[in-house]
Amino acid sequence: MSATLTITGLTRWYPATGAPTLDAIDLTVPAGGCVALLGPSGSGKSTALRLVAGLDTPDSGTVLIDGRSLAGIPPELRHTVLVFQSPRLFPHLNVLDNVAFPLLVAGSPRGQARDDAAQFLDLVGLTSLAHRRPATLSGGQEQRVALARALAARPDVLLLDEPFSALDPTVRAEMHTLLVELRAAVEPTILLVTHDQNEAAVLADTTAVLLDGRIAQHDRIDQLYARPVSLAVHGFLGGRNAVAGRVDDGAHHSRLGTLELPADVVVPRGPATLVVRQEAIRLVPTDRRADLLGVVSAVTARGARALVEVTVAGMSLTTESGPGERFEPGDRVGVVLPLDQRHAVPPATSMRSGESGSSRDVLRRATT
């Protein structure tokens, strides 16, 4: 059930659009690996899955499974299975026969198909519901059946199109745990489409950010957060801080002063934008060592945490406070920007030469 999926130059235009839905994307999912396609609605994520599954035809580009081209091969012969947000179970069949269905289609005798199906039902923890009809199941149970049915087909590549997005948070977390366990048990090759960053972080080995039909960056999720290649990626992933300035001799120079950059941040000398995730910034009392001094200007509750706006050198930085930390507007604070969390984006991928302004202004220009 493990094969390498290789996508090269995949492009799809639709007549009613003025730009390609997918624009020459390249992507590899190694055998037994899981790659998430993460992007906003309309970015081309589901189109990519449909092209791999054979439900649509690319205008150019190739899709290979273990080096075998899928060009001209109908969906039923591709050895791929696509699982949708809706489980799409057969209402007239019980759970066991739903899972056995692809095995029967492939020619297995009914008894053998049901025996195999029972094993996959056990994998998803639904053995006791084998003789129930889909109408009697919860949403999470239905999606477990859909996963069992997909795996029973023993696909070379499992394609998941936001399969857990309709579930409530608790059930969604349970499904994430289940998929992690299934990966350990049967090692399927998975291409997952999602708009949920947390889902990508939990399930995928690497994540490809798809913006406007192009893969803007493909890396581990922690690298996407800490080392975005552009302000568009930084903004899409929820980054709130972007400071216009210049890079010179391994440091960023701006209204915030001179801030050293990590050794792995290699940016040409000249204009560049400093980006630091709000989760990475710490606020400390003014009598402690800090990189900057500021004044709290606003606090917005976010459950157990809060977004804290701090005015520094006439501009606003966004930070996060943790459980037990309390700040009020007007508080004077020290601001710590951990060295390893600092990053700089050069103008070719951030802002046009000569632009300046607050971090929020710069971020808005780069993402609109």
UniProtKB/TrEMBL annotation:
This protein's UniProt keywords: ATP-binding, Cell membrane, Ion transport, Iron, Iron transport, Membrane, Nucleotide-binding, Transport
Gene3D superfamilies reported in the protein's UniProt record:
P-loop containing nucleotide triphosphate hydrolases (3.40.50.300)
Q: Where is the ABC transporter domain?
A: 5-237
State where composition is biased (Polar residues). Answer: 350-359
Entry-linked InterPro entries:
AAA+_ATPase, ABC_SmlMolc_Importer, ABC_transporter-like_ATP-bd, ABC_transpr_FbpC, Mo/tungstate-bd_C_term_dom, P-loop_NTPase, Transp-assoc_OB_typ2
- Could you list the residue ranges that cross the membrane? none
Where on the tree of life does the source sit, at the highest rank?
Bacteria
* Record's signal peptide: none
Entry's SMART domains?
AAA
Q: Does the UniProt entry include the keyword Transport?
A: yes
Q: Which PROSITE patterns match?
A: ABC_TRANSPORTER_2
Q: Name one GO molecular function term.
A: ATP binding
Q: Where is this region: Disordered?
A: 343-368
Q: Which Pfam families match?
A: ABC_tran, TOBE_2
Name of the protein in its database record: ABC transporter ATP-binding protein
Which species does this protein come from? Promicromonospora umidemergens
Print the organism lineage: Bacteria, Bacillati, Actinomycetota, Actinomycetes, Micrococcales
